[in-house]
Amino acid sequence: MVYVAAMFLVAMDATIVNVALLSICEELQISPAAAGTVNIGYLVSVALVLPMAGWLGDRFGGKRMLMIAVTLFTVASVCCGFASSLGGLIFFRILQGIGGGLIAPVGMAMLFRAFPPQERANISRSLILPIAVAPAVGPIVSGFFVEQLTWRWCFYINIPIGIIAIILGMIWLKESGKQAVGKLDLPGFLLSAPGFAMLIYALSQGTAHGWRSPEIVLTGLTGLIFLAALVFVELRTTQPMLQLRLFADRLYRTTGMIALCTAAGLLGMLYIFPLMYQDVFKASALHTGLTTFPEALGLMAASQLMPWTARKLGPRRIIQIALLCAMVVFALLCLVSEDTNPWLVRGLLLSGGLTLGHTVGAIQLLAFARIEPPQMGQAATLFQVQNRLGSALGVALLGSLLAAVSAATADAAAVGAASEATSRVAYQAALLGAAGFLAVAWGFSLTLRERDTAGVQYKKPAVSSAPKEKASVSV
After folding, report:
1. Phi, psi for 141 (deg, rounded to 5)
2. Which H or E run includes 262?
3. Dist CA 309 CA 27 (whole Å)
4. How many CB atoms are located within 10 Å of the residue 388 CB?
5. Contacts of 160 (CB under 8 A, 6+ apart)
6. 8-state DSSP, 91
7. Neighbour-count burial of 337, counting CB atoms closer than 10 A to its CB (0-12 exposed, 13-18 middle, 19+ buried)
8. DSSP H stretches of helix in 83-213
9. Which of 20, 49, 51, 105 could form a cystine bridge with 381, CB 3.0-4.6 A?
């Protein structure tokens, strides 16, 4: 319950602020370009703290670090709501990012230590809530607050959820215990923090500033150099901050690449399709949010079906079949026009959520199936780093593809009536790019061997037939 509530905060925050940026610009009297730094500060701070989250959880205890992270995120949300200047808002968003970067890997490590592999398919029913609902609810809630109240409520809404998570955690959450870790890998931190931060910045701002701009080129290349040096150093350190040796496990390595490409395709589609619906079909932000919301319902339905499908088909077949179906759905979304029945669009998005929900659930089941409890913190951190990079990569590359195709077709098209068709072609190309990411993920899934997953069993939990009195004594 604590993990779901905390992750709901982080996942909703990723989308709720975007809709409110224009209102923030008007009240604080800043330009839209300056308002973009509100999100940049958050993304960069997440990238700074994420690599060391596993070490912090292992060193100081999972409960302690999770409670600190949730408290910091909640308090920063209050401060963001009261911010009266751009500088103050950016500072408090950075604090939010620090808390948000710690929540996912620390919480996931605690969960996967507590639940053995055969039980994880069942807890996926709960874990899908923040993954599926929160990002879809964000734009709808934000649009309501901006129209009816004020943009500050986009941050105030975090307060009750955060307080509930803190109270539940302080009273009932068990400390997972400290793991045997050494001192902080200072060279690894000094290389990973700026490396990931600069790379995420370049990926998130490349489309806006231009990929050839000196700022983006210098930041991106420097980030890649830092990360290349990080790989060299970490593989030669006995107690590294990022345990890259985990990639020696074929199953963990392959599922990690599938997760990265799937995140790129899914987040890229969720970025491109709402833009197309508003820009080409002239739908309102609220109507667009309500149209795309069935995708979240599909993810939720998948979470309920996962325990059954995992037992019937096995996670390897689930990943392969679901990715193939999702590619077809993404391709069909390219054919959507202003005359398309909205319920057909919602049906397609529901199908996309249903298929990718199975993919995400099965990937998590396989990725951590062979990870021992002492290594769970490191494995969860590395897995979250890959997902963050995949999300940023998907949005960045598809945004660039959208801009490039739009510019190319605009030069070749006539002025006036052809402009709308030109814009639609660009969005269709970007959606096909999202399907391309899924195709790459599907290709990786074909390399999974039967013997890789042969020992991974997901059985229906046994129900004790003992009397209640005896059962309670046994517990």
Report:
1. -65, -40
2. helix 250-279
3. 50
4. 20
5. none
6. H
7. exposed
8. 86-114, 117-148, 153-156, 158-172, 186-209
9. 105
Quick one: how far is CA 320 from the chain centroid? 21
**Confidence (pLDDT) at 454:** 59
Rounded distance between C-alpha atoms, residue 271 and residue 265, angstroms: 10
User: What's 207's DSSP letter?
Assistant: H
DSSP secondary structure string, 122-153? Answer: HHHHHHHHHHHHHHHHHHHHHHHHHHHS-TTH
Q: What is the CA angle 370-375-378, rounded to 5?
A: 115
Structure token digits, residue 74: 């909640």
CA dist 279 and 430 (Å) reads: 14
Return the residue matching tokens 């499908």.
309
Closest CA to 6 of 79, 90, 94, 111: 111
Distance, CA of 52 to chain centre: 18
For the segment 182-200, the average pLDDT, to the nearest whole number, is 78
When mean pLDDT is compared across 255-269, 285-299, 434-448, the lowest value belongs to 285-299
Question: Distance between CA atoms of 16 and 13, rounded to whole angstroms?
Answer: 5
- Show the tokens assigned to 193: 């923090």
Residue 379: name the closest of 57, 17, 29 by CA. Answer: 57
> What CA–CA distance (Å, rounded) separates 116 from 188?
31
- Residue 236: C-alpha distances to residues 195, 239, 243, 250, 263 (Å): 18, 9, 11, 20, 30
Q: Alpha carbon of 116 to those of 64, 373, 461: distances in Å?
A: 22, 10, 12
CB 337 within 8 A of CB 393: no
* pLDDT at residue 413 in the model: 52
Question: Which residue is listed with tokens 């968003």?
Answer: 93
DSSP codes of every residue in 291-356: HHTHHHHHHHHHHHHHHHHHHHH-HHHHHHHHHHHHHHHHHHHTT--TTS-HHHHHHHHHHHHHHH
Tokens of 306: 């996962």
Q: According to the model, what pLDDT value does residue 470 have?
A: 38
110 versus 207: the higher-pLDDT residue is 110
- What would the two tokens of residue 328 be? 């077809």
Asked if residue 83 has pLDDT above 80, the reply is yes
Task: Tell the residue number behind the tokens 């959507």, with chain if given.
Answer: 336
The pLDDT score that the predictor gives to residue 473 is 37
Q: What pLDDT does 474 receive?
A: 36
Cβ contacts of residue 124 below 8 Å, gap of 6+? Answer: 303, 306, 307, 361, 364, 365
